[in-house]
């Protein structure tokens, strides 16, 4: 199973090795060599993170649009949940699920889209973990640790001999062997990584979620995770190489900046961020256009009497029924 997993990640490791090597070549030309070579490799990991996140921008945009749709359909979702509240029989549960799926289909909403960036980014994370974790064995020429793209044994030895703040990129807290520089650097990176994750999630929940969405069970679970994630990072982070911690911290900072732009310019409907954006646009004399989800009729929209209800199929009329009948003259 492990061999299959390693084989699956090899193309990603190969690509990451070339990207890191390319960034290092650029930083080397800029004068980051010799004693500063460790910083060149550390910045190469930062450059690798930027490349990965740029490639994920289209997916992030889809996630934002789907997230906004999820916010807009919450009133309809609550109506469905209220309709079947207390009904636990299989028929009612099946009917509720059918109405929810129909709502997703009509509005083009995917409830799992918010998880896609994390799931797609995970292979890049694990591939980098393997790439950095094997540097020492590769530099020592241990059998089974062959070259990965441009990262040959000679390059691996160069990476292993370079340091930042007295620590190698392949070092971790659990393998520090009493090296105080490694321990301090890993603890600082873990604290910064946990703080940026907490800030990102806290900003998302407090500024970009309507009050109604904060009262549902899903939001309460997010609040619990908000405080559990730093503990998880503190426990797991001590096992990660310093290079992986740099990658993780960089992607968190990228996420914070990306989220700040989205919350400011594309806030969730009904949130505090939307209210502030509306005030900014009004001060500039611009009109505020409400976001409309296809397939969802707004509550304040005027619906004709003969229009079908949301989610209700309109029955076709026969030719005879469609014609207007002429009233008979009274005798």
Short description:
Helix content is 64%, strand content 0%.
Tally of separate domains:
1
Q: What fraction of residues sit in β-strands? A: under 5%
Total E-strand runs: 0
Helix and strand content put the structural class at mainly alpha
Q: Counting H and I runs of at least 4 residues, what is the number of helices? A: 13
Pattern of helices and strands: HHHHHHHHHHHHH
Which radius of gyration do the C-alpha atoms yield?
A: 28 Å
Q: What's the pLDDT, averaged over the residues?
A: 78
User: How would you characterize the largest beta sheet?
Assistant: none
- Terminal Cα separation, in Å? 91 Å
Shape label: elongated
Helix residue percentage: 55-70%
Which stretches are poorly predicted, pLDDT < 50 over at least 5 residues?
A: 299-331
What does the model show?
- It is a single chain.
- Helix 2 crosses helix 11 (242-265) and helix 9 (180-207) packs parallel to helix 11.
- The chain has 13 helices and no strands.
- Helix content is 64%, strand content 0%.
- It is elongated.
- The chain has one domain.
- Residues 299-331 have low confidence and may be disordered.
- The chain has 331 residues and is mainly α.
- The protein has helices at residues 2-29, 37-55, 57-72, 74-83, 90-107, 116-133, 135-139, 153-161, 180-207, 217-237, 242-265, 272-283, 319-322.
């Amino acid at each position: 199973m492990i061999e299959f997993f390693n084989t699956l990640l090899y193309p990603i490791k190969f690509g990451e090795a070339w990207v890191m090597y390319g960034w290092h070549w650029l930083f080397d030309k800029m004068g980051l060599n010799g004693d500063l070579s460790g910083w060149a490799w550390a910045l190469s990991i930062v450059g690798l993170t930027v490349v990965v996140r740029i490639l994920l921008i289209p997916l992030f945009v889809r996630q934002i649009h789907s997230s906004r749709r999820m916010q807009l359909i919450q009133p309809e979702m609550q109506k469905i949940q209220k309709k079947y509240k207390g009904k636990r029989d299989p028929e009612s549960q099946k009917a509720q699920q059918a109405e929810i799926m129909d709502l997703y289909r009509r509005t083009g909403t995917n409830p799992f889209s918010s998880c896609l960036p994390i799931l797609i980014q995970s292979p890049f994370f694990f591939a980098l973990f393997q790439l950095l974790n094997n540097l020492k064995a590769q530099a020592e020429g241990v059998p089974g640790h062959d070259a990965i793209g441009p990262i040959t044994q000679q390059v691996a030895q160069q990476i292993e001999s370079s340091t930042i703040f007295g620590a190698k990129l392949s070092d971790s807290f659990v393998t520090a062997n009493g090296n105080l520089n490694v321990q301090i650097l890993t603890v600082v990176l873990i604290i910064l990584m946990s703080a940026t994750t907490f800030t990102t999630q806290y900003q998302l929940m407090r500024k970009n979620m309507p009050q109604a969405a904060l009262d549902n069970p899903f939001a309460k679970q997010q609040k619990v995770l908000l405080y559990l994630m730093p503990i998880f990072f503190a426990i797991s982070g001590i096992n990660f190489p310093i290079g992986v911690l740099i990658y993780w911290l960089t992607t968190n900072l990228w996420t914070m900046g990306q989220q700040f732009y989205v919350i400011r310019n594309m806030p969730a409907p009904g949130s505090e961020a939307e209210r502030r954006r509306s005030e900014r646009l009004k001060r500039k004399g611009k009109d505020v256009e409400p976001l409309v989800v296809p397939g969802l009729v707004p509550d304040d929209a005027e619906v004709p009497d003969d229009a079908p209800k949301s989610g209700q199929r309109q029955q076709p009329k026969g030719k005879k029924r469609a014609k207007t009948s002429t009233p008979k003259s009274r005798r």
